[in-house]
Design goal:
It is built from 16 helices and 13 strands. It is an alpha/beta fold. The protein has two domains: about 180 residues, Rossmann fold (3-Layer(aba) Sandwich), CATH 3.40.50; about 180 residues, Rossmann fold (3-Layer(aba) Sandwich). The strands form two sheets. It has a seven-stranded parallel β-sheet with strand order 3-2-1-4-5-6-7, sandwiched between helices. Helix 6 links the parallel strand 6 and strand 7. The radius of gyration is 21 Å and the shape is globular.
Length: about 375
């Protein structure tokens, strides 16, 4: 089976796609997969390390308002269609798997025109614009959460029915289920007798989350002596945060990007960060309690929808960015750490959200569609 996998450029798109690619090869070494994504994006650098074939195509995000960027996006899309047609003729995929993002539009449309079956995976509670638009041409829609299928256009839901909208969960790399907590403490040079806070704003960073967290530390008082911090700032904000001079009296590791985040998740007692679907899947894998500060400018406000869904399930606390401040964040951190029953409840409910075999479920859907 030859599978073309389309992903956006962020870790939230790439890591679940990578988990499916690994499962494909694990299940049958004869399976072939290659990725289609943006040129010079995060996806390409990650895939080179995995020795997975990558095809870069043109792609520009579609602006929400009509302006000169719309002309640029349309031109880029038309050129991408030509590129994708050439790629498909050369590599002859049996099925196209899309993880969303504007970069998926050209491959999915070309697959439809060339009569190649399409499967879409939507990890968010509220689907993005690309997946909602492309869903009409998908044989099967895979969703990360039970609520995910409800937000697709009504005619798509009627057309697909329950049979072809599947809850597969969010595919994660196997490392998340194999990580050893004690070894992770040693590898990350952490003290197992202290509370560990894991702060992360996503693969590219989150400036406001970084700032709120750094400013809330002096407000924790005596509690700050009992904690240690792993802070992934994101590559875009790392130098600026270093210049902010984190407190010297707290065990504090500040890094731009963490290639093995499963070790930090395994050690952490509390997570603070954004509410991207991939992050939520990782939280669920280890049953980690969290304070979610969803990115307010995400497309279709999908991070607020994700965080709200988790908060309603009792799996996380949510602070909307417009309501966040160093004082409020310090109060939430103190409450989560000092109230053990609350922390355990959040952890237990997060664990219930995990689908252990999500990657295998997606591969099974691909096999079914190809047959």
């Amino acid at each position: 089976m030859r599978v073309a996998i389309c992903t956006g450029k962020t870790g939230g798109h790439v890591f679940p796609a990578l988990a499916v690619a690994r499962e494909l090869k694990s299940k049958n070494t004869a399976n072939e997969c290659y990725f289609i994504g943006t040129r010079n994006g995060l996806d390409q650098s990650l895939l080179q390390k995995e020795e997975i074939h990558f095809e870069g195509i043109l792609g520009e995000g579609v602006p929400s308002k009509l302006n000169w960027k719309m002309f640029k996006a349309v031109t880029s899309f038309l050129l991408a269609l030509i590129e994708v047609k050439s790629i498909f003729k050369r590599l002859r995929p049996d099925v196209v798997l899309s993880f969303g993002g504007f970069i998926s539009c050209a491959p999915v449309l070309m697959a439809h025109w060339m009569k190649i079956p399409v499967v879409i995976h939507e990890a968010n509670v509220h689907p993005g614009r690309a997946n909602r638009f492309l869903s009409r041409w998908a044989k099967v829609i895979c969703t990360g959460f039970s609520a995910g299928g409800d937000s697709f256009p009504s005619f798509v839901q009627a057309q697909k029915g329950d049979r072809n909208i599947r809850i597969t969960g969010i595919p994660l790399r196997k490392e998340f289920f194999k990580v050893n907590r004690q070894e992770s403490f040693q590898d990350l040079k952490l003290d197992p007798l202290k509370w560990t806070l894991f702060v992360m704003g996503g693969s590219l960073g989150a400036r406001s989350v970084n700032e709120y967290f750094l400013k809330c530390l002096p407000l924790l008082g005596e509690l700050s002596k009992k904690i240690q911090i792993i802070h992934v700032t994101g590559k875009n904000d790392y130098q600026r945060m270093l210049a902010s001079h984190p407190p010297n009296d707290i065990s504090y590791q500040m890094i731009p990007f963490l290639e093995r985040p499963e070790k930090a998740f395994a050690c952490a007692d509390l997570f603070i960060g954004r509410a991207g679907a991939s992050t939520l899947g990782e939280l669920a894998s280890c049953g980690l309690s969290s304070i979610l500060i969803p990115y307010p400018h995400a497309a279709e406000n999908h991070q607020v929808a994700n965080a709200s869904y988790w908060a309603c399930k009792g799996a996380a606390h949510m602070i909307e960015e417009k309501e966040c401040s160093p004082d409020i964040l310090a109060q939430e951190i103190s409450q989560a750490l000092l109230n053990e029953p609350l922390r355990k409840s959040l952890s237990m409910n997060a664990k219930k959200m995990c689908v252990l075999d999500a990657d295998s479920r997606v591969v099974s859907v691909l096999e079914e569609v190809v047959k």
